[in-house]
Amino acid sequence: MKPDFLYHPYSSTRNTVFAKNGMVATSQPLAAQAGLEMLQKGGNAIDAAIATAAALTVVEPTSNGIGGDAFALVWTNGTLHGLNASGPAPQSISIDSVKAMGYENMPTHGVIPITVPGAPSAWAALSEKFGELPFTEVLAPAIRYAEEGYPLTPTLGKYWKMAYHRFTEMFQEEVFQPWFDTFAPNHKVPEIGDVWKSQGHADTLKEIAKTRAESFYRGNLAANISDHVQKFGGFLSKEDLASYYPEWVEPISTNYRGYDVWEIPPNGQGLIALMALNIVGGFQFSEKDCVDTYHKQMEAMKLAFTDGKVYITDGNEMAAEVKDLLSEEYAQKRRAFIQDEAIFPKPSEFTKSGTVYLAAADRYGNMVSYIQSNYMGFGSGVVIPGTGIALQNRGHDFSLDPTHANALKPGKKTYHTIIPGFLTKDGQAVGPFGVMGGYMQPQGHLQVIMNTIDFHLHPQQALDAPRWQWIEGKKILVEPSFPNHLVQALIRKGHQIEIANDSGHFGRGQIIWRNPDTGVLMGGTESRTDGTIAAW
């Protein structure tokens, strides 16, 4: 029998999109079109995802870039594969070396928090393992957008201008000048509707395409990256780049009301979403928009998040086993803390042992859940001159406390916020989903999955529904559209509710589900950004 959300009555900001031959959902229309172009040329969903991801580094540089990280879940031939393309800390960095530079915490911007970027390696690895089209052809749309230019869309223009004004105040040092040269040439930030182009982006993407990303890690681009970072006192070296390869991993899952929800294992924070689903799985919810539903969701999420922030780090250095965190015993223990009033969460104890998201599907049954990010918008603020390579700042999440699970160490991967999701039922793919946006991501996963499975909302409804975000303690941020009577009821339960000025804090999601009987695809895209679905 088809799941209820495949034919639920329609009422939403936008309509869910249906297609038969292929579909790409992401936050930028031109990037989605790049993926569709691959499908129409005979490529598969993996080719479409790579083309879209590469294009996003050009057409949404406010959220990701060539120098970012990536994760992917790929469904093909009845099996789900996981790819972790996040990079480790440089081998020459240490807590002592960072503190000797005068820092008590990892800095947010500059050369210090730069770890090995993984995104180009993800494109090459996905293409080599699953792609049908030549790698040069898959990256061609991104190169074209960079060379010929494209007009800025509304949300893109908004965040580009915000970043420019913020960076103008913050970035006075020489190391940041290439950012202005690249993204605000002649001291002018592009406006909504202006055409922006970058030959540096184009040339870099051409070299990545020609060398299957080898130049980025073991060639000319690698030398340019390391030389520039080290010129300004950073730690990333040619050796760090040369020794890096992405890692194929076994996805982790939990069963939620008959569906298997899948995430990438740590160092990603997808584990938090699964832990929270396990906690709420012990409750029954009669309706979506009632105070009891939101109260229990919020309490479950804060408990799962509190533990996740304590235990999640490089998968090889976890102080708690994933299987323990996903056990029913753990869920019952944490569920017992949820009472009628909001609580201040405390971590459980165990025995020691700035982002873009896209979904793609094709007529052959292949489906991809893919996410990549520079973190905090433009990342570190460091751009390699003449290349368009904006480097991420993932090392910012490392702790300089040597007793912390996520303590900085040479060659270690940090706690990572970006997470792709995937849904299956009875061993068959339902489809990819994701909600990007820092620490909103597992919270978005919980809300979208419950909207889908508990409340039978179709993809567009599941994304459009008002969202909330736990911040810390009892503090909860809600969207402006969140019903006021529920805000008041949650306050009476002890939650400290704040209403956001806009919806920019609540993530951007995409969903593609497949009807198991007909193979028809149905997709939802984010109404909080310039999201679109390209389909045929």
From TrEMBL:
Instruction: Report whether Hydrolase shows up as a keyword of the record.
Output: yes
Q: In the UniProt record, does the keyword Repeat occur?
A: no
Location of the active site: T355 (nucleophile)
What residues does L-glutamate bind to? D397, G438
A Gene Ontology annotation in the biological process aspect, one of them, is:
glutathione catabolic process
Top-rank taxon: Bacteria
PTM (free text):
Cleaved by autocatalysis into a large and a small subunit.
Q: Which key words are in the record?
A: Acyltransferase, Glutathione biosynthesis, Hydrolase, Transferase, Zymogen
Please give the Gene Ontology molecular function terms for this protein: glutathione hydrolase activity; leukotriene C4 gamma-glutamyl transferase activity
Which reaction is catalysed here? an N-terminal (5-L-glutamyl)-[peptide] + an alpha-amino acid = 5-L-glutamyl amino acid + an N-terminal L-alpha-aminoacyl-[peptide]; an S-substituted glutathione + H2O = an S-substituted L-cysteinylglycine + L-glutamate; glutathione + H2O = L-cysteinylglycine + L-glutamate
Subunit architecture = This enzyme consists of two polypeptide chains, which are synthesized in precursor form from a single polypeptide.
Q: NCBIfam families from the entry?
A: g_glut_trans
According to its UniProt record, which protein family does this protein belong to?
Answer: Belongs to the gamma-glutamyltransferase family.
Q: What protein name is recorded for this chain?
A: Glutathione hydrolase proenzyme
Species assigned in the record: Heyndrickxia ginsengihumi
Originating gene: ggt
